[in-house]
Design goal:
With 295 residues, the protein is an all-alpha fold. Helices cover 63% and strands 0% of the residues. The protein contains 13 helices and no strands. The mean pLDDT is 82.
Length: 295
C-alpha cells in the first residue's frame, strides 16, 4: 500500500493559519446609542444642574463661566427650605391628593375599561368616542365650569376640590380597555357557565389579571398630580390646603427676590417622593407596558 505524502519546506508549520476576520460596525445600533445618549443628556442634564445649583452658595449661582460641579457643597439651602415652609403639611396634602386620585383613577379606569371591553350595551362605541374626544380638550378650557360646579357643591378651597374632578380619566379608560381586550374572552364564558355575574367575573377573574395595567394608571397618575400646579392654584386659596408645588412658589420671595439655591433645593426635595415611587414601580410599569408584545 502506497501513501502519498505532501512535502513541505523545512521550517514551515503544518497548521493552516486561521482566517482573519474583521468585525463590522453595526452603524444602526451605534446611531441608536448616540441618539439615546443625547436624549439622556437633555433629560438628565437639567436635573443635575438643579442639584448642583442647590448645593452652591447663592452668590456662586451666576458665576461666569458656570461651574457644573460644586466642589464645596453647601447644604444650608435645604435647611432654609424647612425654615421657610411647613414641609410636613405640604407633603401631607400632596400625598393625600395624589394618593386618593391615583386610587380613584385605578378604580374608575378598571370599571370603565372592563365595561367597554367585555360588556355589550347600546351606544358603547359612541360613548367611547366621546370619552376619547375629551383627551383633546385642554385643562384650561374646562377649569372654569369645573370651578363653578365645585363652588356650587360647597367644596371650594378644600382638598376634595382637587380630588373629585381628577378621578375620571379618559386615558386610563382607554388604556384599561385595551388591556382587557388583550385578555382571553374564554374566561368570561367559563365564569358565566359557572353562574358568575358580570361583577363577580370582573372582581374575581379579570381584575387580578389586570394588575399590571392598573399599576401603570396609578404610577402615571401619581407622578402627574404630584407635580400639578395649575389646578391647585385655581381651586385653593388657604395656605393650609396648598400642595407642595404651590407651596414652593413662596420660596421665590416678593418680586422673585428669593435665593435661587433655596428654590432649587425645594425643587429637589419635591422630586424625591415621585422618584421613589418610580424606582419601586418601574418593574411593574415595564411589565405592564410590554405585556402582550410577544403574543
Amino acid at each position: 500500500m502506497t501513501t502519498t505524502q505532501t512535502l513541505r519546506p523545512r521550517g514551515t508549520s503544518t497548521v493552516d493559519p486561521a482566517p482573519t476576520t474583521r468585525r463590522r460596525i453595526d452603524w444602526g445600533m451605534t446611531g441608536r446609542i448616540v441618539i439615546l445618549a443625547i436624549a439622556a443628556v437633555f433629560t438628565i442634564g437639567p436635573v443635575l444642574w438643579t442639584l448642583s445649583t442647590s448645593l452652591r452658595l447663592p452668590s456662586e449661582s451666576f458665576n461666569l463661566p458656570p461651574s457644573f460641579i460644586p466642589w464645596n457643597p453647601d447644604f444650608t439651602s435645604y435647611a432654609q427650605v424647612f425654615k421657610q415652609l411647613n414641609m410636613g403639611l405640604l407633603v401631607l396634602n400632596s400625598a393625600l391628593v395624589t394618593g386618593l386620585v391615583a386610587l380613584g383613577q385605578m378604580a374608575s379606569a378598571a370599571l370603565a375599561g372592563y365595561a367597554f371591553a367585555q360588556l355589550e350595551f347600546k351606544g358603547k362605541s359612541a360613548l367611547f368616542s366621546v370619552i376619547l374626544a375629551t383627551m383633546m380638550v385642554p385643562l384650561q378650557v374646562t377649569i372654569v365650569p369645573v370651578f363653578l360646579l365645585i363652588r356650587g357643591m360647597g367644596l371650594s378651597d378644600t382638598l376634595l376640590a382637587l380630588i373629585i374632578p381628577a378621578i375620571p380619566t379618559a386615558f386610563g379608560t382607554f388604556l384599561m380597555r385595551q388591556y382587557f381586550l388583550g385578555l382571553p374572552p374564554d374566561l368570561a364564558e367559563a365564569a358565566a357557565i359557572d353562574g358568575a355575574t358580570p361583577w363577580r367575573t370582573f372582581r374575581s377573574v379579570y381584575a387580578p389579571l389586570a394588575m399590571p395595567g392598573l399599576a401603570i394608571v396609578g404610577i402615571l397618575a401619581f407622578n402627574y398630580h404630584w407635580n400639578e400646579f395649575f389646578r391647585p392654584l385655581i381651586m385653593t386659596i388657604s395656605e393650609q390646603n396648598f400642595t407642595l408645588p404651590l407651596g414652593l412658589v413662596s420660596l421665590q420671595g416678593n418680586m422673585g427676590t428669593g435665593s435661587i439655591s433655596v428654590v432649587l433645593a425645594g425643587v429637589i426635595l419635591s422630586m424625591i417622593p415621585a422618584f421613589v415611587v418610580f424606582i419601586f414601580g418601574q418593574r411593574t410599569l415595564r411589565a405592564g407596558l410590554t405585556s402582550g408584545i410577544g403574543k
